[in-house]
């Protein structure tokens, strides 16, 4: 027995933010000193390293749970199920609902409870809760849902990943340019009939010396924003950590699936940094002493940016919906999912479609 995906959905906000949006930003370093490079050069460097040209921001009247609701509703419609038959709604995020123009995060009640309310589900035994696990949160929600199903305490679970990172960025920090908003969702169901489904998974939390590579910290502009905290990262440390730990985790997870490396069809990885993801995948194949196959890793970070927990389910829905001309997932394909993020947390899933 395993669990399989029976429906997917996503929500990509309509507001496109190009790199030109940051042309007039006053970027500072950690000491509050203006960066020597002009913003055009900063944006060009960002594109060359991360691949990001554009990102999407939510409308001012939307919050994270609204985005999650839209993706969830789409996944339910895609699956054709009655939402009253859901046993769990698991919502992965990191900052709750942040109303546009404010600085306060709101996570009470849980975002999962808010989505269940918006879906008008009457079943009181459909359990709704949130997962805070950094960028790997949606994958961790899928792992938890699979565990519930295999344990016999659930038959259907809705797993949502959504974030409005545009609401928690320091406009004086050039790292703010990578972040984006969005939502994705999938419905996982018990599968006793065929070989399709989740085959192996792995999760890890590196906290001894790595805990604060991603954190909530003060603005680089200490004069105008002295007491407000924003998402911060130590980019070089994260890059080094990811290259050192993610390929090994991916291999361990893949080896536990029982498949051979020649059977792997796609790698869907958290869209955080194009060069970093390419380096991770190369090191993964190096562990098997194999070259990286062509067209193995779909990427949409150039147009959608880094929307944290939403990047993987957004991309999965786009592929399954035929929205990426150069990438398809066919019946019988073996796909490796992987993510890394705040915690520092790492996880991976092997799935047969």
Automatic annotation (TrEMBL):
The lineage of its organism: Bacteria, Pseudomonadati, Bacteroidota, Flavobacteriia, Flavobacteriales. It comes from the Bacteria. Pfam families: ACP_syn_III, ACP_syn_III_C. Residues 255-352 form the Beta-ketoacyl-[acyl-carrier-protein] synthase III C-terminal domain. This is Ketoacyl-ACP synthase III. Coiled coil: none annotated. Residues 129-203 form the Beta-ketoacyl-[acyl-carrier-protein] synthase III N-terminal domain. SUPFAM superfamilies: Thiolase-like. PANTHER family: 3-OXOACYL-[ACYL-CARRIER-PROTEIN] SYNTHASE 3, ACYL-COA:ACYL-COA ALKYLTRANSFERASE. Keywords: Acyltransferase, Transferase. InterPro entries: ACP_syn_III_C (IPR013747), ACP_syn_III_N (IPR013751), Thiolase-like (IPR016039).
